[in-house]
Amino acid sequence: MNRSALVNIFAKRVIEATDYLDDDKVYLINQILGIVGESSYMVAPEDSDLEKLSTLDILDQLIMLSKNNGTLANRQMNEDMLGAQLMNLFVPIPSQVNKLFWTYYQVSPESATNYLFELSKRSNYIKTREISQNISFPAPTNYGELQITINLSKPEKDPKAIAAMSHESNQKLQYPASQLARENEGYWGRLDYAARTNHRVVPLTLGGETWYFQYSPYAYFNEHAIVLSQTIRPMHIDEENMARLLEFVTQFPDYFIGSNADLPIVGGSILSHDHFQAGRYELPMAKAAIKQKIHIANVTLDEAGVLNWPMTAIRLIDKNKNKLLKAAMHVIKIWHVYDDTSLSIKSYDENGTPHHTVTPIVRYRHGRYEIDLVLRDNNVSDVFPDGIFHPHPDVQHIKKENIGLIEVMGLAILPPRLKKELVAVEDFLLEKVDHVASKHQAWADQLLVSHEVNTENVENIVQQSVGQIFKRVLEDAGIFKSNDTGQQGLQKFIHEIE
């Protein structure tokens, strides 16, 4: 490998993809040399083999060069940190990104988001190569087609660790203050903290406050965005934030937006920093039909009803977002204090700790606003110490993590461990091995006796069974079950909100 040729081709790619000019090439070469820790450079002829490589393949070689020459070890850096510094050459400074975003917005909101999304991919902030390794497949159910993804680009998080993090006191000063804080923009990272050198955010105004719009580096769906508050405060689902969700889709009508619930167990992985998730994508829940029409007390809406969905979800639709907000808050306030001990539904414990909240999703479709409110309860019991309305023990071999916003909407984000584990189950069904991991054994035994398995159908059998288990996961997280008792309980709750 000709080191100088490698540096030269990377500088050339930067010029081709950005506003840098050929006159900037010497500057860029020196920046690249400094980042990778090379002290010499000789002008070399074009290398036709390097020309054939993708920019990310060239990046890999530069990172390896830096690793081999001791730069990573000497500077106490990892490969991700160095890669982000190199790819930062593809990104304008924050003020320029902000200016360009809002210039494109004058054309259309879609033009603005297209600009930032493409920039985030081009700079490898959105990990397109890693994301492409994810395993995805559909799962038809009686609620419609769910979507399954075995995530190979983001580490698995434990629900108990998430809850512990949300209660940590600020005994030590941390910078950046949160994984979502604006201060991540341009941050070099640490060995224990992700690099964000090539990261850019765009300020928005929501509810009279400054919020920031950015994309997720893990992109669970198309244009997966995060909208975060400038003020670092705990997640909260209230009228203030519900109004912000409606305001966002007014500004960006081709995106949906939603919020994780604001309580442990039923909430997302970061409860300590107020934020939403958005995107240009129709998740399975958006396609769910209303199975029972309802009325909301003191508000007349275009439509309102309970969705045909494994979790208890109420959809509210109207052209007037103020009416819709009023209706949503009525449902939320009733649910916050609603009890039904026969169904283990308890709004507060003896210490006054709240246990009820919602996962809200907001869209603007066909000239009308939509709000989906998914009822959540984070109580635990002796029988279900991980959560009464959480994946129960018999399905935790597939999904034990919190059921957050994305799962609620029908997209399973399953842990990377399952890639190898599902192959092992397939081998067991084909009698290549005589056992699997103990947590999967009962499931694998059941599949073996209930299916005629061969090499052509084994993968589909396992995948479709995973889909049915994910459906069960959502049903476990649902408040009012689909059985007679659950539906009778649902009618009692509806009576309270009508």
Automatic annotation (TrEMBL):
Domain Galactose-1-phosphate uridyl transferase C-terminal intervals: 250-444
Cellular location(s): Cytoplasm
Residue span, Galactose-1-phosphate uridyl transferase N-terminal domain: 23-234
Pathway: Carbohydrate metabolism; galactose metabolism
Keyword terms of this UniProt record: Carbohydrate metabolism, Cytoplasm, Galactose metabolism, Nucleotidyltransferase, Transferase
Pfam name, any one: GalP_UDP_transf
Coiled coil start-end: none
Annotated GO MF terms: UDP-glucose:hexose-1-phosphate uridylyltransferase activity
GO biological process annotation, one example: galactose metabolic process
Catalysed reactions, semicolon-separated: alpha-D-galactose 1-phosphate + UDP-alpha-D-glucose = alpha-D-glucose 1-phosphate + UDP-alpha-D-galactose
Cellular component terms (Gene Ontology): cytoplasm
Source species, domain of life: Bacteria
Cited InterPro entries: GalP_uridyl_Trfase_II (IPR000766), GalP_uridyl_Trfase_II_CS (IPR023425), GalP_Utransf_C (IPR005850), GalP_Utransf_N (IPR005849)
EC class: transferase
The protein's Enzyme Commission number: 2.7.7.12
PROSITE patterns, sorted: GAL_P_UDP_TRANSF_II
HAMAP family, A to Z: GalP_UDP_trans
Family per similarity comment: Belongs to the galactose-1-phosphate uridylyltransferase type 2 family.
Xref: PANTHER family: DUF4922 DOMAIN-CONTAINING PROTEIN, GALACTOSE-1-PHOSPHATE URIDYLYLTRANSFERASE
Name of the molecule in the record: Galactose-1-phosphate uridylyltransferase
Lineage: Bacteria, Bacillati, Bacillota, Bacilli, Lactobacillales
